[in-house]
């Protein structure tokens, strides 16, 4: 991918918020996009293309779906900036079209890089984050990326006069909590003691609070910032690396996976396409429904069935030839907890020599073993959200992706 210095090209075509100018300074690459079907849609639309969107973490699992969804579903888009620490090769596939796609390699922990990327954007969708519950990164790094990075995004919006900020939070800001209390089909108002010790949920909770508290702050030009936070449950779909890991583990075990979690434990899951669609809708509606939506949180939900983590995965891995062995956990809980604790101890002992970060640790065991599901219609009531993909379609797409055996989401 070609890279340019200086400001993002194509910005001259779009008008920034309140006529603010752009800033320079980041390595950027401009890529035209839109397939023929989208070009047709644009031609049909009487709406002018005028909006500049920035998606941080736009090359991640969710971020890529948000980027593609915006290109398909946001006719007012003029420029789409994709900001990420690691730019994905799939960006190159995007063809020249009426929407300017600007790839920006940058780090959310670097305030000046974020400020340069935000300059001139109308809407920021902040999905970038360090998703680590396995002990790969230090607690300090997780805090820096998830909390300081979010603070940098907020300050950049304020400095640049960008008024609309959508934050990808997580169900983890609520729970499961350290007491392992169940959250059974709860909604945004369900009382629950949110108490965290693990760096990831703690960082997401702090970052979410920063975003919500920033709602109403005056941005450059004097207008108020409008923010809201989306809380997905466990996301699945094309690009879900842990699903692929379980698939390969099952293949290594001769087509079998061994049940570890009771089937009665419900774990909330949501299809990535619907999470992306919810981000696009929120971003679109924030302007018109600011008094209602500003400072609000929304769980991300769809019609995916309530099941245990493993039984849910089998909806995809079963048709790919795997079998879940055992109607009850094959190992008693105390033994799993012992193994998880042993893994944590080994991780600590080996740290000076190598990174040992298996999927099973006391935290992941607790999350997988605690019922946490949501049932709400807040997003429908506030901004008309309905899942774009049915459960059948979400399932079929995910199965197709697992079977394809590649890492691309397409
Ligand atoms: N995967 C899941 O089940 C859930 C994820 N989330 C949230 O959704 C968001 C996206 O998560 P995923 O797509 O699953 O993770 P991901 O790891 O696939 O994507 C995160 C993206 O952020 C980028 N990034 C990380 N550090 C960065 C930095 N310092 N500067 C710029 N970019 C950086 C990464 O390169 C990556 O492309 C995260 O904020 C996460 O907390 C929320 C609920 C569930
Ligand atoms: C046999 C083991 C006990 C099974 C381990 C499964 C775990 C690796 C995963 C079970 C639940 C997952 C988490 C959950 O879906 C909620 C999440 C929300 C986020 O914001 C980030 C990801 C995650 C923490 C997710 C991570 C993997 C699990 C712990």
TrEMBL record:
Record's keyword annotation contains Oxidoreductase: yes
Native species: Sus scrofa
Function of the molecule: The 3-beta-HSD enzymatic system plays a crucial role in the biosynthesis of all classes of hormonal steroids. HSD VII is active against four 7-alpha-hydroxylated sterols. Does not metabolize several different C(19/21) steroids as substrates. Involved in bile acid synthesis. Plays a key role in cell positioning and movement in lymphoid tissues by mediating degradation of 7-alpha,25-dihydroxycholesterol (7-alpha,25-OHC): 7-alpha,25-OHC acts as a ligand for the G protein-coupled receptor GPR183/EBI2, a chemotactic receptor for a number of lymphoid cells.
Classification of source organism: Eukaryota, Metazoa, Chordata, Craniata, Vertebrata
GO cellular component labels: endoplasmic reticulum membrane; lipid droplet
Compartments where found: Endoplasmic reticulum membrane
Superkingdom, natural source: Eukaryota
Record EC number: 1.1.1.181
GO MF terms held by the record: cholest-5-ene-3-beta,7-alpha-diol 3-beta-dehydrogenase activity; oxidoreductase activity, acting on the CH-OH group of donors, NAD or NADP as acceptor
Descriptive protein name: 3 beta-hydroxysteroid dehydrogenase type 7
Family: Belongs to the 3-beta-HSD family.
Alphabetized Pfam families for the sequence: 3Beta_HSD
Segments forming domain 3-beta hydroxysteroid dehydrogenase/isomerase: 54-324
Keyword Endoplasmic reticulum: yes
Gene: HSD3B7
Topology relative to the membrane: Multi-pass membrane protein
Assigned keywords, A-Z: Endoplasmic reticulum, Lipid metabolism, Membrane, NAD, Oxidoreductase, Steroidogenesis, Transmembrane, Transmembrane helix
Catalytic activity: 7alpha,25-dihydroxycholesterol + NAD(+) = 7alpha,25-dihydroxy-4-cholesten-3-one + NADH + H(+); (24S)-7alpha-dihydroxycholesterol + NAD(+) = (24S)-7alpha,24-dihydroxycholest-4-en-3-one + NADH + H(+); (25R)-cholest-5-en-3beta,7alpha,26-triol + NAD(+) = (25R)-7alpha,26-dihydroxycholest-4-en-3-one + NADH + H(+); 7alpha-hydroxycholesterol + NAD(+) = 7alpha-hydroxycholest-4-en-3-one + NADH + H(+)
GO biological process: B cell chemotaxis; steroid biosynthetic process
SUPFAM superfamilies listed in its UniProt record: NAD(P)-binding Rossmann-fold domains
Pathway annotation from the record: Lipid metabolism; steroid biosynthesis; Steroid biosynthesis
Main location: endoplasmic reticulum
